[in-house]
Write a structure and sequence with these properties.
Blueprint: H1 3-15, E1 22-26, H2 29-40, E2 51-54, H3 55-63, E3 66-67, H4 70-85, H5 91-110, H6 115-118, H7 125-131, H8 137-148, H9 157-182, E4 185-186, H10 188-196, E5 210-214, H11 221-232, E6 236-239, H12 244-247, H13 258-264, E7 280-286, H14 289-301, E8 309-312, H15 319-323, E9 333-335, E10 339-340, H16 345-355, E11 363-364, H17 365-372, H18 375-381, H19 383-394, E12 399-400, H20 409-414, H21 425-442, H22 448-464, H23 472-484, E13 487-488, E14 498-501, E15 513-516, H24 536-541, H25 547-563, E16 567-573, H26 586-594, E17 600-604, E18 617-618, H27 622-633, H28 642-650, H29 652-660, H30 675-690, E19 696-698, H31 700-708, H32 710-725, H33 733-755, E20 758-772, E21 778-791, E22 794-801, H34 821-837, E23 843-849, E24 862-864, H35 866-884, E25 890-891, H36 898-901, H37 905-908
Parallel strand pairs: 1-2, 1-5, 3-4, 5-6, 7-16, 7-17, 8-14, 8-15, 9-14, 15-16, 22-23
Antiparallel strand pairs: 10-13, 11-12, 18-25, 19-20, 20-21, 21-22, 23-24
Helix pairs in contact: 1-2, 3-10, 4-5, 4-9, 5-10, 10-11, 16-17, 21-22, 22-23, 28-29, 28-34, 30-32, 30-33, 31-33, 32-33, 34-35
């Protein structure tokens, strides 16, 4: 029989229907609900339930005070601090440590520390000896140790600031409490202290014949004093859950509070609690959070009675993955943790929008893309969000102007022009409220989603109503703080179905099957320290809670939760990257090495199967040929370029994916200039420099003038960066690239100077032609020639190349060999241009290999005549004929170096 079940059974046996005259106090609401459930199972006739309280609600109920709102308290504290200190410190600077001060005041009151002594303004060590002789030896040593570090001459600025703050803590404490009392409110610790120091308030409990405290453990000093007074009055009874060899082991921190509680607060009734055997315990190391949920699913699939299963999550980030993994056989799931608002989808959208305020004028793309990809935005903006996203990626926009979103109301509202870190928090709140209203009106939000938005609207309205100026960073912190205290309960009957809970919700509850996730050292028990202004030695000296105190509480929760279980699974994360240590919790280590239990241990890992190698080729079925026909011979026929034909030579399958199916590579935005952008910017600059000379003869003097005009070159380079990368700022890698482009432009001009004078004919010339196949079918061809000029009466085709290359080849067949194509692709491309120009006279192919160019190196140039161009054309016809042939499939050239960088290789392999 479970702990609460045993308590319910005995009291019902003793009291029967008169149990309604009693009051029961539990550590949390869930334990009170289960107690009522067990009580109801003991009778067939309806009875009145006894009064049920949590320990916190019980004390507040007799105090005559209401619990003050945390946010209101923070603003009040700030106002009082400014009055007492006389400083004009901003709320932004105050908000973080103001929160810490409230927590310290809370601890001070809950543990009945003397605030005057704790926050004493010690100026000299002699003051301790003369004025604090009545301190206990422990307190005296703590105070001496703390202040000795602050008294030597030459204090640092941080120490001075700390002392200045410490000097106002006691008057701040007094004034803060004084104002709250006037309004009959208080923070939790203050309310507890008020009752502990005014025990006459307990007289109002006469309506209960007896007050029974069940399943408590770590009592603060206020609770201790209140319980002692009730015991003295004979009104109280106490029942502690200290059973089993783990919790009763004096060497185990779980027993830290046991002897004191049993001794100070003994039970009136002799109740026999069933003794339990040590459960079957399995320890499972798992290599990911997602994998943990899969293991839990497997365990749950093999269990029948849902109410007897508890999944305990020390890490609340595991909640959502766990909910998505619950087996279908569990229609009722009760999540005692609730869903934290700060983890809701709408809150993530607000966080993304808040990030936009870090920019001014134009928005950094990394802050824009998450908004466009957000589910709410995709749901409402539909095609608009996708189109804007594609444009940003295709144009490689590093910074996106607000005008970019003019055509969509919601996006325009989000990416407004007047948004920056200087935006008043109040205005920003109203902006977010407008966005939330639009989301609700234009999306089919329902159920829990509407609850999320409602609570966030309430919080935003509260912040908007605050008259204290604050930065948007402070606004974000405040909003997060407010929402961290709000959770939305999930569906499910509280007393049936699978129970998913945090560690604190396990108090006083027992389950047959207990599954712990994330049982790693640092997660449970937690390694994080609470922020406090009160140093460790002072906290110890004045008996305030320290890490050891919290570790003892965690230890009790763990060992108590598994005592009455039949089966226990302890899952821990084995990953060691990032902040993960892969270290199992000390509780697992204690079970293994201290208690030497026969534990079952295993490691769960992903099993990867290697798929057999597959050879992919696309046969030219009637459907494929129909698609090819439509693309290249239809009303809107596409032209074949040298790049497309080169793709086919390297790999017909790659050509098919890219040019027939239109499968695009995953576009990404790169903040660093890539090779294609490098070439585009260089081309842009050269075209603009020579734009005034088209059809004219360029002299050496004119080129020399261009070489000397560095400012013009620099201006054009910046314009190129803006045109192709929307980049305005140059630093790091991009600055080096800008300088390299400038160097290449100078070298190209110097090389041209060595050739001058010459006739500059054209640049970036688009050339279109047709290739007539057998049967009279015409295929459109196109190309863009970087530059055409004429030197010594011979027309030159100039192609700027930023990479390696040459135009040396033994025979034309080498240009069509996939194994040799990369070496000869410049020659293939330039002969393609020569064919498009259809010149009757010889032309010179002149690639400008920029990395090798100099005025003393004419580089690789090749004169080709009409005969060679015609031979190339005939060989090209065979290639094109193969593309359209029904007998030759689109096959993959497996094993070539092309596969190494081909974006479609995952399809083939």
């Amino acid at each position: 029989m479970k702990f609460l079940q045993t308590i319910a059974s005995r009291f019902y046996e003793d009291e029967g229907a008169k149990i309604r005259e009693l009051c029961f106090v539990f550590p949390n609401r869930r334990s009170g609900l289960f107690f009522q459930k067990y009580l109801g199972e003991l009778t067939n006739a309806p009875i009145f339930s006894p009064k049920i309280f949590t320990i916190k609600d019980f004390i507040i109920s007799v105090s005559g005070l209401r619990e003050a709102d945390r946010l209101d308290s923070l603003f009040r504290l700030y106002r009082i601090y400014k009055e007492i200190s006389g400083t004009e410190e901003s709320f932004d600077d105050f908000v973080f440590w103001g929160d810490v001060i409230i927590d310290d005041f809370n601890d001070t009151d809950k543990f009945l520390a003397d605030a005057r002594l704790l926050f004493a303004n010690i100026k000299e060590l002699k003051e301790i000896e003369s004025d604090y002789s009545f301190l206990t030896q422990t307190q005296l040593e703590a105070v001496m140790s703390f202040w000795e570090g602050f008294l030597p001459i030459g204090e640092s600025e941080k120490k001075q600031k700390f002392r200045a703050l410490w000097q106002v803590l006691y008057p701040l404490y007094l004034k803060f409490r004084e104002e709250l009392v006037v309004e009959k409110s208080g923070y939790e610790g203050m309310i507890f202290r008020h009752v502990a120091e005014n025990t006459i308030l307990l007289d109002k409990l006469d309506e209960y014949r007896e007050i029974v405290f069940v399943g408590l453990n770590a009592l603060n000093e206020c609770e201790n004093k209140i319980l002692k007074e009730l015991k003295k009055q004979g009104k109280a009874d106490f029942y502690w859950d200290y059973f089993g060899e783990f919790i009763t082991d004096s060497s185990n921190k779980a027993s830290h509070f046991m002897n004191g509680n049993i001794s100070n607060f003994p039970s009136k009734r002799e109740i026999f609690f069933e003794k339990y055997e040590i459960p079957q315990i399995e320890i499972i190391g798992v290599s990911s959070a997602v994998m943990q949920t899969k293991i839990v699913t497997e365990i749950l699939e093999n269990s029948e009675n849902a109410i007897e299963n508890a999944v305990v999550l020390p890490d609340e980030k595991m909640l959502l993955p766990m909910l998505h993994s619950i087996p279908e056989k569990y229609p009722d799931v009760n999540v005692t943790m609730g869903y934290p608002l700060k983890g809701s989808p709408i809150m993530s959208l607000i966080e993304y929008i808040t990030e936009l305020t870090k920019d001014k004028g134009a928005y950094y793309y990394k802050r824009v893309l998450p908004i466009l990809k957000h589910n709410y935005i995709k749901l409402i903006c539909k095609e608009s969000a996708r189109e804007h996203l594609n444009r940003i990626v295709s144009q490689n926009l590093i910074y996106v102007a607000p005008s970019f979103f003019e055509d969509d109301y919601l996006l325009k509202l989000i990416f407004s022009e007047n948004l920056s870190k200087d935006t008043p928090a109040k205005d920003f709140c109203f902006k977010l409220l407008d966005i939330l209203d639009f989301v609700v009106q234009n999306s089919q939000t329902k159920g829990i989603e509407k609850e999320f938005i409602y609570h966030i609207r309430v919080s935003l309205t509260r912040i908007a109503g605050i008259l204290i100026p604050m930065s948007l960073d402070t606004f974000g912190r405040l909003l997060s703080q407010i929402l961290s205290t709000v959770s939305i309960p999930f569906k499910g009957e509280p007393l049936s179905g699978l129970q998913i809970m945090g560690v604190l919700e396990t108090r006083a509850l027992d389950f047959d099957n207990v599954i712990y996730c994330s049982l790693n050292e640092g997660t449970f028990p937690s390694s994080s320290q609470s922020n406090s202004f009160i140093p460790y030695n002072l906290r110890r000296g004045f008996s305030l809670p320290v890490k050891e105190y919290n570790d003892a509480i965690a230890s009790y929760h763990f060992y108590r939760s598994i005592y009455r279980a039949k089966n226990v699974w302890l899952l821990y994360d084995t990953r060691t990257e990032g902040l993960n240590t892969g270290e199992m919790s000390r509780f697992i280590m204690q079970l293994k090495y201290h208690y030497k239990l026969p534990l079952k241990e295993s490691r769960a890992s992903f099993r990867v199967k290697c798929a057999p190698e597959k050879i992919v080729e696309i046969a030219k079925s009637s459907q494929v040929l129909e698609k090819v026909e439509k693309i290249f011979f239809g009303e809107q026929a596409k032209s074949l370029s040298a790049t497309a034909l080169g793709s086919y030579i390297l790999c017909p399958l790659q050509f098919y994916f890219s040019y027939i199916e239109g499968v695009k590579e995953d576009d990404e935005i790169s903040e660093e200039i890539e090779s294609n952008d490098f070439g585009s910017i260089f081309h842009f600059v050269m075209e603009k420099l020579y734009s005034g000379f088209k059809g004219k003869r360029l002299s050496k003097d004119e080129i020399t003038t261009l070489i000397k005009d560095s400012s013009k070159i620099e201006k054009l380079i910046k314009a190129g960066f803006l045109e192709y990368r929307n980049l305005r700022e140059f630093k790091g890698y991009n600055l080096l690239i800008k300088r390299l482009i400038h160097k290449y432009v100078q070298l190209t001009l110097e090389f041209d100077l060595s050739l001058a004078p010459f006739e500059y004919t054209d640049s970036e010339k688009k050339v279109i032609s047709k290739l007539i196949l057998e049967g009279g079918k015409e295929v459109a061809l196109k190309g863009f020639i970087d530059r055409i000029d004429r030197i010594d009466g011979i027309k030159r085709i100039v192609d700027y190349k930023t990479g390696k290359g040459e135009i040396k080849y033994s025979n034309l067949e080498e240009l069509f060999d996939p194994k040799k194509f990369n070496k000869n692709k410049i020659a293939f491309q330039m002969l393609f241009y020569a064919m498009l120009l259809d010149e009757k006279q010889p032309v010179k192919l002149a690639p400008y290999i920029l990395r090798n160019i100099s005025k003393n190196n004419r580089g690789d140039e090749k004169i080709v005549d009409e005969t060679e161009v015609e031979q190339y054309k005939e060989r090209l016809k065979l290639l094109v004929k193969e593309i359209f042939s029904s007998e030759i499939s689109f096959y993959g050239n497996r094993g070539t170096r092309t596969c190494e960088w081909c974006p479609y290789s995952p399809i083939c392999y």
